[in-house]
Amino acid sequence: MEIKRRDFLKLLAISGAASVGGAWSARAILDVPDEVFQRVLNGPRLETWKNSICSMCPGGCGISVRLIDSIPVRITGNPQYPLNAGATCPLAEAGIELLFHPKRIQQPLRRLGERGSDKWEPISWEEALATISDRLNQLRLDGHTEKLFLVSRARNEMITDLSQQFMASFGSSNFSLLNQADILSPPIYLTQASDQPVAYDISNTDFLLNFGFDLLDEGPNPVRYNQLYVQLRNRKNPQPGRIVHASPYMSRTAVNSSEWLAIKPGSSGALALGMANVIIRDGSYDADFTENNSFGFSEWKDSSGETHLGFKELVTSMYSPERVSTITGLPANSIVAIAREFAAAKSAIAFPEKFQNAGANDLYNSFAVHCLNALTGNLNHEGGVLYPKALFAHQTGGPNRPSNHKHKLLEGIYDNGLLNVKDSEIDTLIFHQVNPLFNSSSPDQLKEKLAKIPLIISCTTVLDETAAFADLVLPEPSYLEKWEINHSIPTVGFQHFGVQQPIIDPLYDTRQFGDILLELSKNIQDPDSDKLSWKSYNEYIRDAAEGVYNSGQGTIISKNSNQTWLEFLKDRGWQALEYSTFAEFWNVLLAEGGWWDPISSKVRTDQLFNTKSGKFDFYSLSLMEAMNSYVFSPDNPIKNMEELLAKWSIHSFGDQVYLPHFEAPRFDSESFEYPYHFMSYRLITNNPDIAVPLGLAQELSGLNSREFWNPWLEINPETAKAEDIYEDDLISLVSSKGTITARVRILPTVMPGTVMMPSGRFGGALSANPAEILSTEMDLLAGSSSQIYTRVKIVKNPPKEKV
Amino acid sequence: MQESGNHRWGMVIDLNKCTGCGECVAACKVENNVAIVGAEESEMDRTMFWMDIITTHEGEYPDTEVTYFPRPCFHCDNPPCTKVCPVRATYRNDEGIVTQIFPQCIGCRYCMAACPYTVKSFNWFAPDWPEEMNSSLNPDVSVRPVGVVEKCTFCIHRLQKAKELARAEDRELREGDYLPACSESCPTDAISFGDLNDPHSEVNKLAKSLRAFRMLEELGTEPKVYYLSKVE
Is residue A16 over pLDDT 90? Predict the structure, then answer.
């Protein structure tokens, strides 16, 4: 409520009079509103709280922002929000620093001089939008609408849906997402032909086997996974769950697991297959599932009568614990023990490695890991893998993410996707909140590519490397100044969404990307095209929320809405809260911060799979179909499968290509010249997507290494001894691509023969970006770039100018 | 709850619940306007933390054990730092909190040398925030000037507020009314805080647990921050 000065004085008089009978009894006698009470208590500083959604990473945590006289001073977790239950991560606390950052763009800018020369002139929004509209209208007149490209960030936000609708209405299919958030979905697509990410029921599981995804520092929602890990380990009833982490590096996630299995880089798939071997030979797999709900588990005959290899035959003949032991570096008896433990658990989860972690063989690794869940009957099973329904499907008429599986599996739409586009096929390129010139592993090639594109527009909050290379820069408000709906964070087992709302009026002359798109849509001169009819982006997200309101499902989050209570109400046909109008619903929604539906209706296992067989594919017919259609497509130069496999560096052949199997990781150079594997990892406190080094985050990034503002290199004591290196020495890493220099930390958490480095943005004198030495290589099948493909050598005493 | 003045505020940190995420450190820095010293000063080991995390590594690859110890000021009942202060700028108050009076500090840094846990930081320069951020500092905590020593206060400003609110509502302080920022914001509830004198408080019970220990207990400093060891 607004308090006028006169009301305030009046109130002071009242409380003054009341204070005769006791200093603070005013509240008891009169119905003094809370805000006023606060003001009297604190003097002129009025404290208020507003709920919103954090945007410092894709996690989508609910936040409560503390404002003093309408200025935000602290960001804490929204205690009611079901994803993060009142907590935030350290990075979220730096959000205010980003809001007030001196490097924020304050008005639209047009480039003066050469691209990348950092000379700009401020222009008005009208002029900026007219420039773009003219260009788009010209493209439309020429009949080349597909020459418009839009690259956006992968977030679970409604802006993705609007962007897709905009591109479709304009007539271009060239919309892609960078830094794919649904990194977990490719194995689901292979085995189940589904776009919808699965959920993992971690709070109810007995055994979580993580194949190297550092969930506590990155991924779907780090805060949630920090909480889930601790709750599982400290669970009283039933007994605590076991967490085993298999990875080459002892990350913070591995430290917080019950046991860590040190495996060689890129070998997670082999471990999964070795375990499957033990489980099948023991006969401890779920025979009911493999018989009735799966395809390709055993040998099968196609329509022409030809026999094909099954998963069982492949695994039992090729992946004995002894062979897997040589691939992974784990003793064979450990593989047998972990497999037996996994199969014996009442419920178990095999969590795949993060894409981009493996040695250009990600897809087969995660394929093998996901098959373990199926083999042990943990699909659609409490404490296993769950299948939540998509939210907002009514709004967009389908799955809520752009379905670029055609690209994803076969062309690589990730950071190198643009490189594959011919110069003549692209005219106007819009970047929305992405910075590939910093994050891509091939920035130089990308720069060359960008130099040939006629018009580049960047819509961003701070002037980053990519925006610096654009012709037009459109400033977007910070997430604390804008409207958004954040929903359906992957791996979470219930439907939910949160509303991001301006907690402070925009500081500068900025506009939301959604409003820009709607404005452009209005200016496009084509009577035939479907105009986007929303007046503002705010109206667009209200519309989405209204769809949920009309469905009558779920409830706005509140202090009293725990799962048991809601289930109790639902059983009796009641709802937790009733709203007479949508406007009322919307107001409560803004005040509380979000909505959820914790009650997931049970799905029958035989209805889960969209595959041709209607079953879970151990033998991926989806992959076979995709590869065949690629080979037989008319505009593809490769005309037979052997050639295609060779081009994609797949060493297996025949049926094995479509079954989970182990492909040895590839490296960019020979070990005699470059003896060490180089890998980078993410810190919870340093997100490379944030374009400026934030002081708070910089000083927190070094909590463990005690190296602040600069990155560091981690090596094993054995490596240090062999190379005669001491703690804090300055060394250079040389790869076939480049050189970086940093100080050394000698730690027993690093595998001998590997060098680890945190990725992210650092602001000190030695701020190196791992991308400077990472070679460009991809899992060619999945189109994701690989992070452990690079080999390096160590050079001591780097030349002085580097220091 | 005990009469005012009979409180003995203390903290219990469960290492089995701490994941080392660093949120307590971030919350502390923002809540208490702890200066961001910048890259150059950090290089000289002048980064300021009231709450810090000490990471220990034991064993050899792959049999490695890593432990994260969140480290606030231990608010010792027998604090070595207060005894060396020539101007009583730091003292143990009657509720057991070792407080700092910033305007009284002459910057001799004896207390920094005396503290066996190295919890104190010195302001080598006046703190410097971007101009835009000036009004977004926490108004409840004063910004320290150049030349004084600072450290964790158990967020004593929150105790003042909690007491005022309790008085306004005409009641005693209740458990949970007063929590430092680190304890309040820990995502995994690893940091418990409360009155060690209150026989019913959570910290009182946890501090008597078989897993409880204190850092460098043999020095006789009587820290009021307990750790609960990890469960294997």
Answer: no
Let me know if residue A473 belongs to a domain.
yes
Q: Are B114 and B81 contacting, i.e. CB atoms less than 8 angstroms apart?
A: yes
Is A615 contained in some domain?
no
Give the amino acid at B62.
P
Whole-complex ipTM: 0.95
Q: How much is the pLDDT for A442?
A: 75
Mean pLDDT within A27-36: 60
Residue A22: pLDDT band with limits 50, 70, 90 = very low
The pLDDT-based confidence of A540 (bands split at 50, 70, 90) is very high
Contact state of A708 with B30 under an 8 Å Cβ cutoff: no
Q: Report chain A residues whose CB lies below 8 A from the CB of B23.
A: 87-90, 93
Parallel, antiparallel, or unpaired: how do β-strands A730-735 and A791-796 relate?
A: antiparallel
Examine the pLDDT at A156 and tell me if it is beyond 70: yes
A97 domain-assigned: no
Domain boundary at A386, A413, A436, which? Answer: A386
d(CA A291, CA A295): 8
A361 and A428 belong to one structural domain: no
Dihedral of CA B111/B115/B118/B120: which sign? negative
B77's tokens:
């009942």
Last-in-domain residue among A540, A562, A597: A597
Place of tokens 């690629």: A630
Whole-angstrom Cα distance, residue A519 to residue A221? 33
- Six-digit token pair at A136? 């788009």
Same-domain pairing of A409 and A372: no
As its CATH architecture, domain B9-228 has 2-Layer Sandwich (3.30)
* DSSP structure string for A57-124: STT--EEEEEEETTEEEEEEE-TT-TTTTT---TTGGGHHHHHT-TTB--S-EEEESSTTS-EEEE--
Q: How confident is the model at residue A180 (pLDDT cuts 50, 70, 90)?
A: low
Rounded CA-CA distance A680/A688 in Å is 12
Contact A102 B132 (CB under 8 A): yes
Q: Which residues of A touch B36 (CB under 8 A)?
A: 695-696, 698-699
Domain with residue A122: its CATH number is 3.40.50.740
pLDDT of residue A405: 35
Closest CA to A558 of A33, A77, A82: A82
In this prediction, residue A33 carries a pLDDT of: 66
Question: Angle formed by the axes of helices A125-141 and A513-523, to 10°?
Answer: 50
Kindly state whether residue A407 falls inside one of the protein's structural domains: yes
A787 pLDDT more than 80:
no
A669/B68: higher pLDDT:
B68
Question: Which among B43, B135, B188 has the least Cβ separation from residue A226?
Answer: B188
Q: DSSP per residue over A191-212, as a string?
A: HH---SPPEE-GGG-SEEEESS
Same domain, A365 and A490: no
Q: Are residues A322 and A253 in the same domain?
A: yes
* Structural domain harbouring A34: 1-45
| A214-222: average pLDDT | 92
Q: Give the whole-number percent of chain A exceeding pLDDT 70.
A: 84
Look at B43 and A776; give whichever has higher pLDDT: B43
The CATH number of whichever domain residue A252 belongs to comes to: 3.40.228.10
Q: What is the pLDDT of residue A12?
A: 43
Q: Which helix or strand (DSSP H or E) is residue A244 part of?
A: strand A242-247
Q: Do residue A381 and residue A464 come from a single domain?
A: no
For residues A257 and A369, state if they share a domain.
Answer: yes
Q: Give me chain A's average pLDDT, please.
A: 86
Give the per-residue pLDDT at B62: 93
Question: Which residue, A388, A584, A596, is CA-closest to A497?
Answer: A596
Which of A100, A696, A699 lies at the smallest CB-CB distance from B136?
A: A100
User: Mutate which of B18, B182, B185 to test chain A, going by most A C-beta atoms within 10 A?
Assistant: B185
CB A757 within 8 A of CB A711: yes
